[in-house]
């Protein structure tokens, strides 16, 4: 195949028709900065950091999106190029958060730090991973099994090959902790002297109790059914969510100091007014 001869920064190089300036430059160890370019994905050319001067073209060209031509003369470090790159970078950063929130986290209804615990698991830091997960999800073993994982639909890794198995990794971290010698117990704030009644022992009520107890409040859960768990226990089959997993996670919440009272129907076995009178606050978590 015939090759094109071109000149980049005074260096004579060769490229195959159809290649971009950036591709030829990289093959010849000529540095052109980029932010949005990845050879595994479709060319986007949004960042504007790879602009170069091409002799005969009055406009700056994006090296990632401009194909080479015979006898092309390219300059990558002229004052005009450097100033344009600086301006483009300043514009990108002017309205940009210091810590980007990734699409997986934005897609998670609980706002879980998905990329955080995936990275911790990848580095073998399982204890730190479950601590991070439980900042948002008190029942990760159960949720890791039944969550429809919208985080994976939004995962940018899918642009390259396939999404990371975020829900399975959450489940792994939860099981590793749950059946280890020393399951993670969150730090509880100093006692506030306030007591809270949570009506409903499903995932919503259990989650409320978990976070309220972490804040130092005394918490009591009232549940109408014989066992706590709500839809997780009575609506999801055993093969999908083993009751052993659910029981262990509920047990951890109970060990935090949460009082759990099953087989009590508010308004029948105990008056709601009595609950309101005896507690500083009442939270309704009756679910569906």
Describe this structure as you would to a colleague.
The protein is of the alpha/beta class and 288 residues long. The chain folds into 3 domains: 4-94, Ubiquitin-like (UB roll) (Roll), CATH 3.10.20; 103-178, Alpha-helical ferredoxin (Fumarate Reductase Iron-sulfur Protein, Chain B, domain 2, Orthogonal Bundle), CATH 1.10.1060; 195-284, FAD/NAD(P)-binding domain, CATH 3.50.50. Helix content is 37%, strand content 12%. The chain has 12 helices and 9 strands. It has helices spanning 21-27, 79-94, 103-107, 114-122, 126-133, 140-146, 150-154, 166-178, 203-214, 231-234, 243-255, 272-278; strands spanning 4-8, 11-15, 51-54, 61-62, 73-75, 195-199, 218-222, 259-261, 281-284. Strand 3 and strand 4 (61-62) form a beta hairpin.
CATH class of the largest domain: Alpha Beta
Oligomer: single chain
CATH topology of the largest domain: Ubiquitin-like (UB roll)
What class would the helix/strand composition place it in?
Answer: alpha/beta
Strand proportion, as a percent range, falls in 5-15%
Shape category:
elongated
* Number of separate structural domains: 3
How confident is the prediction overall: mean pLDDT?
93
Rounded radius of gyration (Å): 29 Å
Low-confidence stretches: none
